[in-house]
Write a structure and sequence with these properties.
47% of the residues lie in helices and 16% in strands. The chain is of the alpha/beta class and 241 residues long. It has a seven-stranded parallel sheet, with helices on both faces. The structure holds NADP nicotinamide-adenine-dinucleotide phosphate.
Length: 241
């Protein structure tokens, strides 16, 4: 029987690439989207594997629990959870509102907490499973005008390392992939000049593709990474070493 991977943010650029890559590796897929139903349906039609869509706002623990229960009912088990859903925002620190802050933490950090907690009941029972969190280079280094985003992603890295220690004895690994600047809709707030300036800071001399991140996720999801946990795998073209 094919292993099942649950991917949040599957309707976005990186999530889509992860889905296509894991499908190639033989996974069945539970694909979570929130607002972008059309993109999710297009992805489902493109995939040549067993797959199903689930609408869920990762900010809601209730919706997350219902989604995980539905996936378990449909697929029997969840072998790999990819916490990929996220939002970004560029603002001066003093302009960040309470709502901006709550929204950023709820989406990028609490969402991963809710999904990890919900899938772990089954993973611990089976003494097997992998959780992969999509962090960010800004969570490693901090970014000016993205303090709330950097804080949420740094929190996700902390959660990755701490949870890895807690669930290792249950046969479960928890790792993160930390992308640099990746060409998806998330970059649409940046001008061409901004992107060119970022490219100049990257030793490998190009912005990343969603597929670069997907390859790293596929590695962590596969058997070749079975002895890795608590690791943050950077995919940033050498931007931060
Ligand atoms: P994207 O194309 O904008 O996709 C974002 C995804 O997150 C969408 O599928 C969106 O779903 C989902 N999402 C957002 N809020 C949600 C919510 N409340 N509930 C459920 N899903 C929600 O961005 P991306 O570049 O693929 O980003 C994917 C991940 O990579 C994010 O965690 C991001 O922080 C991280 N990352 C990206 C970059 C980059 O340069 N692109 C760099 C470092 C890290 P709907 O559209 O269906 O609502």
């Amino acid at each position: 029987m094919a292993k099942t991977a649950l991917i949040t943010g599957a309707s976005g650029g990186i999530g889509r690439a992860i889905a296509l890559r894991l499908a190639k590796d033989g996974f069945s897929l539970a694909l979570v989207y929130n607002n972008s139903q059309r993109k999710a349906v297009e992805l489902l039609e493109e995939l040549g594997c067993e797959a199903k869509l689930y609408k869920c706002d990762v900010k809601s623990a209730h919706e997350v629990n219902n989604t995980v229960n539905a996936v378990l009912a449909d697929f029997g088990e969840i072998s790999v959870l990819v916490n990929n859903a996220g939002i970004a925002q560029q603002k001066l620190f003093t302009d960040i509102t309470d709502e901006d802050w709550q929204n950023m933490i709820a989406t990028n950090l609490s969402g991963a907490f809710y999904f990890s907690r919900a899938v772990l009941h089954d993973m611990i029972k089976r003494k097997s499973g992998k959780i992969i969190n999509i962090a960010s280079v800004w969570g490693e280094t901090g970014a000016s005008c993205e303090v709330h985003y950097s804080a949420a992603k740094a929190g996700l890295i902390g959660m990755t390392k701490a949870l890895a220690k807690e669930v290792g004895l249950s046969g479960i690994s928890v790792n993160a992939v930390s992308p640099g600047v990746i060409k998806t809709d998330m970059l649409k707030a940046f001008t061409a000049d901004d992107l060119e300036a970022l490219r100049e800071e990257i030793p490998l001399n190009r912005l990343g593709e969603a597929e670069d991140v997907a390859d790293a996720v596929a590695f962590l999801a596969g058997e070749n990474a079975d002895y890795m946990t608590g690791h943050v795998l950077s995919v940033n073209g050498g931007m931060v070493i």
